[in-house]
Specification:
The chain is of the alpha+beta class. Strands 1, 2, 3, 4, 5, 6 and 7 form a 7-stranded antiparallel β-sheet that branches. It starts with 5 loop residues before the first strand and ends in a 23-residue tail after the last strand.
């Protein structure tokens, strides 16, 4: 039987199982406490982020209000400046009326009223005030009493007045221009020295016709100017509105970009802070799982931790938050599994200590052993030179198992007739070792078995005072 591996599953003793259950409950409560602490830390971080976001929003609103206030103040100051300019234009119009300007100032007063209405609506006038001021200033005062002047001089002055209506005067007021031309011809005929009465009588008609023609031309020009100005102002307003829309759109795009950048930084900060909360525990799980022989658990948590770290390094906020959430979700169960690994490791270590004491108590010499990450390998020798390599391992369901590899044991098996007992001294010796493993307060090994063992066979126990017994052939 030497060299044939022998196996024995080990049951946990009742008292040992009770102590282990107490320890398991204690660890579970520690895990819950750790998770509560991590949840509280996450809540504190979330509250701090919310407070920072609230302060940022308040600062942005305050800056926006300050900007609007500055803009409103500038507009109000410009409106006051426009009002002062319009008051000056009003004074110039009144002065022109007092000085006897030829042109009808009613259209200018209408333009002035329109500009005042725009100011009242909060519109900016731009250079409209200066343009109106220029038209008022260009008004020329009427000539003095023409009746006292020389007819030739008066006639020349009237002809200059008709010419002053401009080259477009005939087109703007064709009837008036023709009437004035005819009257001037008649007045020219009446300019002789013996026709002064006729001249003076006709002069008033000519002056009235010229004034009417000049007013008509002026009004036509003013109407054309108003139309042109209205078109220009409309285009200017459209351009201004378009510029305002573009500025608003750019401002909105800038705000969206700033908000997106701020949100990115906030999400990255949240992911980093949450990762800082779980990173120490995750690293501890990875290291302990590798030491305790569970590379699957170590890889699972290690990969989750690495993914979260890489996404943060890449500044992928959404992916980083997802990875951190995944790690947070995995960690409690990973710690539970790690506790079970540690309990199994402690169980194996206690079994190793009990097995070493039991075997040395049966005369074995302990030659050392190795911790192989989840299992232990122990080396013993007998005084006869036989070697026993004992492995303390764990089955998939967590049950401890003992595996013996024996070399050099001088077993002598009794080959008897059918139904007569057969005694295997190695098996009996190991059964003695198993009896010394603590029972209910420790470990209870099951039947020792090996490949090729006859069904139902079990060694006869050796007397306690005998450490070895030979079976005679």
């Amino acid at each position: 039987m030497s060299g044939s591996p022998k196996y024995s599953s080990v049951r946990i003793g009742v008292l040992y199982a009770q102590r282990e259950a107490i320890e398991r409950r204690r660890r579970a409560e520690e895990r819950r406490a750790r998770e509560r602490k991590r949840a509280a830390q996450r809540a504190q971080l979330a509250a701090r982020r919310a407070e920072l976001a609230r302060r940022d929003a308040e600062s942005a609103a305050r800056r926006e209000a300050e900007r609007d206030a500055r803009l409103a103040l500038a507009r109000a100051e410009q409106s006051r400046a426009d009002e002062r300019g319009l008051d000056e234009v009003r004074a110039l119009i009144e002065e022109a009326q007092r000085s006897g300007a030829r042109a009808d100032v009613s259209s200018l007063e209408g333009q002035l009223a329109a500009l005042r209405g725009r100011v009242a609506r909060g519109e900016q006038l731009g250079d409209a005030v200066e343009r109106l001021r220029g038209r008022v200033v260009s008004l020329r005062p009427a000539a003095a009493d023409s009746a006292a002047d020389d007819p030739a001089s008066v006639l020349a002055d009237l002809e200059r007045g008709l010419a002053a209506t401009g080259p477009d005067g005939a087109a703007l007021d064709a009837d008036g221009h023709r009437r004035c031309t005819e009257l001037l011809d008649q007045l020219r005929v009446a300019a002789g020295p013996d026709r002064r009465v006729r001249f003076d009588a006709l002069l008033g008609t000519v002056e009235h016709a010229l004034a009417r023609h000049a007013a008509t031309v002026t009004e036509a020009r003013a109407a054309a100017e108003r139309h042109t100005r209205a078109e220009q102002e409309r285009e200017a307003r459209q351009q201004e509105q378009e510029q305002e829309r573009e500025a608003l759109q750019q401002d909105q795009e800038r705000q969206r970009a700033e908000a997106a950048a701020a949100a990115l930084e906030q999400d990255l900060a949240e992911a980093a802070e949450r990762l800082d909360v779980v990173r120490p525990a995750a690293r501890a799980v990875v290291e302990a799982a590798a030491e305790l022989g569970d590379p699957g658990l170590a890889d699972e948590i290690g990969d989750a931790l690495r993914t979260a770290t890489e996404e943060l390094t890449a500044r992928s906020a959404t992916e980083a938050l997802t990875a951190v959430s995944d790690l947070e979700h995995r960690l409690p169960d990973a710690e539970r599994r790690l506790d079970e690994l540690e309990l199994a490791y402690r169980r194996s270590r206690d079994l190793v200590a009990a097995l070493r004491d039991a075997m040395t108590g049966e005369g074995f010499a302990f030659e050392g052993g190795e911790d192989e990450g989840g299992s232990f390998r122990l080396h013993f020798t007998r005084p006869t030179g036989a070697t026993y390599e004992t492995t303390v391992g764990v089955e998939d369901d967590g049950t401890p198992v003992l595996v013996y590899r024996v070399e050099g044991e001088p077993d002598v098996t009794l080959h008897a007739a059918r139904d007569e007992p057969v005694c295997d001294t190695t098996e009996a010796l190991l059964e003695r070792v198993h009896e010394a493993l603590g029972g209910d307060d420790g470990f209870v090994p099951g039947e020792l078995t090996w490949d090729g063992k006859p069904p139902g066979r079990r060694a006869e126990p050796l007397p306690r005072e005998s450490s070895w017994r030979w079976s005679a052939p």
